[in-house]
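Can't paste images in this forum, so I'm doing it all in text. The chain is below; anyone willing to post the predicted structure tokens underneath?
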Amino acid sequence: MLLRWICAGYCLALLFAGLLNYIPGLTDAQGRAFGIFALDIYDDMLHWTSAAWAGIAALVSKRASEIFLKVFGTLYLADGALGLATGSGYLDLGILIYGVQALPFTFKILANLPHIALGGFAVFAGMFLMRRPEAA
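Text version of the structure:
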């Protein structure tokens, strides 16, 4: 049950991420959420699709939740690591559209921390928490 609850939490978090651009006061004049994240409709669709996947996995089974956490976690963690290294991720095709960007390292950390944290915890949960008896 634990993995299913974690997936439900991911569903809510990803829905919120997809709504950031549409909540008044959270974006600056350049359209960046919290002055950091330049989100567009492609990012929103990625977040909403991921949220739907997490929600469906939570409803279906422990095994579906485990698969979501492992695959989603790996994809988002790798995207965050690439963004940290190059300033562009691959999930939103940023590395293809913008290439390597010369951004301040602190900015790269702040911009990629959500994917690194969400992805890292998802991989951890899918790989290690699934072994706990309460995970069933």
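The chain has one domain: 2-135. The helical segments are 2-19, 41-60, 62-86, 94-97, 105-127.
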